[in-house]
Amino acid sequence: MRGAGHRPGRRVVVAVVAALTTACTAPPPAAEVPAPPPPPPVTGAPGPAVSGPTTLRVGLGPAPASIDPRLVIDDAGELVARALHEGLVDLVPGGGVAPAGAETWRTSADGTEIRFRLRRATFHDGRPVTARDHAAALLAALDPSRPPYGREGILAGLRGAVVVAEDGTRTAGGPDDVLAAGGVEVRGTWDLVLRLTAPDPGFLHALTDVSLVPLPPGRDEAGAEGPPVGNGPFRLLEPPGDDAFLRLVAVPDHHRAPRVAELLLQFHPDDLDGRQRWEALAAGRLQVAELPPARRDDALAVLGPARPVPPGPTAGHHVRTEAAVYAYAFDTTVAPYDDVRLRRALAAAVDRGAAAAAAGPAAVPAARLLPPGLLADGDAVAACPHCVRDPAIAAELFAAWVADADPVLPLPVTLSVPRRADHAAVAEAVAAALEDVLDVRVTLRALDPEGLTRAVAAGEAALFRPSLRSGVGGAAAASSLLDPAFRATAPRPVAGTGWGDADSDALLDRLRGGSDPGAAAALDAALTGEAVVLPLVWLERDLAVAPGVRGFALDPTGRWWPERVALG
């Protein structure tokens, strides 16, 4: 086995997977039991594919930054990536997990081995989708030097995904570590075995993350030339053009055959107030439109609020908050941020309203860490005095810390953020608020995604912008957002704050297993109360669905399923 520090490139990963044989090199598996039956039929389940020229027209804001499933960073990109691709399993309305690329699976009696049997499916170019393709996608996500950046924690439960040294230090294992430990094994063309270090009730939900979908050989490198080739219910009719629209057509023989023949996504980068999209929907030129909050009153007045009327939520106005939070986090193991008084002082000085204004018209100040919809009914997060802007409290906490620490003032504060204009705008608003209230001098450090991941892993980014976005929906969304980013026993490249203990990990375990509905609120209160993380902004999204649309279903995370939608 190579050392944990070695990070093979994607082509090496594919070659290693290709060399696997059907011989089992791991210990004999435990007795097997069938996987639970698929969930009951869900609201808005897709019917037969249509043969007519029906087109579902969707109006969105700016074109996605990327439609590569490993690089999506916005809602539009995820919508396209999920329409074009599918992984082993998929989320369905209601939050359950159902077969997708895998037709069936069986879980061992001790819960640590899952054997997937793939359906006989092909990529859109006709090549078969094999176990080797799925294995390559999973292994690539475990390499922090390759996209998807910062997502290796999704598969932390696989054997070999965490390497423990003799001194107890835990680091993220690479693809070769997982292969050597038997965490991923290809058994012929259609069978894939995944082995876990311990039973994990949230693992199947983790596999629904869009970054884990397979790509055909030759397209598995980021930046590969040509339009993406997927295995999902839609395929691209033509390569992306001038960012005005994307046209996808149904794959009629797909096991999730769409109920419309075509999906036309129209982008409106200059329609900041949503007037163009709203007028197009009102005139019947769009069936679904993503609108800014400025058009909320118009949509409610004309369409009314969406109601869960059989056969499910369809026409009407939908409002939801993304299952994500724009926040900054501290490395609590590094001075001076190992002192909670300084962290709280900075938290009380932050102007979340200014940050929301810098983030755009859909942004609202974050009142806590988890956005609405990810807490259980009746949950309440305990309020803390520094969780809202209060210059007096900020100055008092800062003065108490200065009296003991005797630092050189103004205190230098370096804020590490991704290199992009929208991140810079938020960072500048935060820096201005901090310098206005406290005796600090803020320096902004813009890094590319790989560089930021490496800086956090090396302990060189003491105040940084983490990626806190749920990769999955349904009941697992809150767990996906918090775990493993704040797990004390997670490797440093995955959890860069150094915060937590056995008690907080136990809360994460209960949240992941769904056995403690109050665990999310308790974790939220602890993380904000100790100012480990500074929640800044939530993003609201309004979706207007025209009359005549059937089968539209919206997950609390904001995901919807275009292949389930029918017209007329």
Give a structural overview.
This protein has helices at 10-18, 75-84, 131-140, 175-180, 203-206, 275-282, 296-303, 340-349, 352-359, 391-405, 421-437, 449-457, 477-482, 502-513, 519-529, and strands at 32-34, 55-60, 89-91, 97-99, 102-108, 113-118, 162-164, 170-172, 184-186, 191-195, 234-236, 245-250, 262-267, 288-291, 316-321, 326-330, 363-365, 411-418, 440-447, 463-464, 533-545, 549-550, 566-567. It has 568 residues and is of the alpha+beta class. Strands 2, 11, 12, 13, 14, 15, 16, 17, 20 and 21 form a ten-stranded mixed sheet that branches. Strand 11 and strand 12 form a beta hairpin. 51% of the residues are buried.
Reported by name, the CATH topology of the largest domain is Dipeptide-binding Protein, domain 3
Largest sheet: 10 strands, mixed
CATH class of the largest domain: Alpha Beta
Helix/strand structural class: alpha+beta
Overall mean pLDDT stands at: 85
**Annotation, overall tally of beta strands:** 23
Helical coverage, percent range = 25-40%
Shape summary: globular
How many distinct helices? 15
**Percent in strands:** 15-25%
